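Supplementary Methods, section 5.1.

A reviewer requested that the exact input to the structure prediction be made available. We therefore reproduce it here, unchanged from the version used in the analyses.
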Amino acid sequence: MRNIFTKAGIAALVALAGLSAVAPTASAANGDLVISVQHRDRHWRPDRRPDRRPGCAPWLAEEKAARMGLRRVRVVDVSRRTVTVVGFDRRGRDRVVFANVRGCPLIRR
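The structure derived from this sequence is encoded token-by-token as follows.
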């Protein structure tokens, strides 16, 4: 008998929750149509250009490699995933590989 009352109580709670969720949306249908529009330029900052490429720019990879201690740096390969820079350090020729994403994170040296 207790099982039947439990199931009936749960069914009543579900029905009550369903009615409370429908009530606010039904009250907006009386002709007061509210449209919320988010503007695309809401978070626009003047220092950001919309045409900026999201990947790692070759000149930025060269600058990062030079700051890491390489001399006479140059970009030798740019692929979809990596930007490879070669140069010389104290021991001789060295290669640095950056990820081709924003900020040019270092993959391997």
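The first strand starts at residue 71 and ends at 78. These observations are discussed further in the main text.
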